[in-house]
Design goal:
Layout lengths: L2 E13 L5 E8 L3 E7 L1 H4 L3 E8 L7 H10 L4 E8 L11 E2 L9 E7 L2 E5 L1 H5 L38 E4 L2 E13 L4 E5 L9 E6 L2
Antiparallel strand pairs: 1-2, 1-12, 2-11, 3-4, 3-6, 4-5, 7-10, 7-12, 8-9, 10-11
């Protein structure tokens, strides 16, 4: 299996064999189950849909109940799809765990970044502001400044860096190294940081 669904537990640091202390992220990977298998004949490509975390039947709509019934599984809270080169070795309802990964593997981590709300140009785009406090500027220190010419073109060009909502976007961090795997507690320790808040879901893809 080339992918798993995990949860961001938080950051810590560990010492390597050479004595270096490196920052790392602990990811909880509960057993995932194969909910759907897509093939070239039916869907045009190979992929496997995994589900994780039990969900109450009362909180699941009928279309999803029918979807889970095909694989003989109870409803799951999170569903994610992983593209595969072949699906011949997968079975509906099969359990997938951290055993499919090894220490030293490189993985790509995809998640939703932390939401920052509505932010100005200084925080959102690293602008330095307009003027200085010592030159008679008392309320322009974090202003965006001019956003375009007046008469021509008489409009603001698309893509102009301005204030707006920041964060809460799909972010992928590539080539993170797996430092340690704890099969008893279903934990993966990754070198570096991952996107998202604590306990947010992560899509873990093994590099091919």
């Amino acid at each position: 299996m080339s992918g798993l669904i995990g949860k961001n537990i938080g950051m810590t640091s560990i010492f390597l064999d050479d004595g270096r202390c490196v920052p790392c992220t602990v990811v909880k990977v509960d057993p995932c189950y194969v909910v759907q298998i897509k093939t070239i004949e039916n869907d045009g490509y190979f992929s496997v849909q995994l589900g994780v975390d039990e969900k109450k039947i009362q909180k699941t709509n009928k279309p999803l109940l029918g979807h889970f019934k095909k694989s003989g599984l109870s409803p799951k809270k999170k569903l994610l799809e992983f593209k595969e080169d072949s699906v011949s070795h997968f079975d509906l309802g099969k359990k997938v765990s951290v055993d499919s990964f090894q220490e030293g593997d490189l993985v790509d981590i995809k998640g939703i970044s932390k939401g920052k709300g509505f932010q100005g140009v200084v925080k959102r785009h690293n602008f330095s502001g307009v003027g200085e406090r010592s030159h008679g500027q008392h309320n322009r220190l974090r202003a965006p400044g001019s956003i375009g010419a007046g008469s021509d073109p008489s409009r603001v060009f698309k893509g102009k860096k301005m204030a707006g909502k920041m964060g809460k976007k799909n972010v992928t961090i590539k080539n993170l190294k797996i430092l340690k795997i704890d099969t008893h507690q279903n934990l993966i320790i990754l070198k570096g940081s991952v996107p998202g808040n604590k306990n947010s879901y992560l899509m873990i893809n093994k590099k091919k």
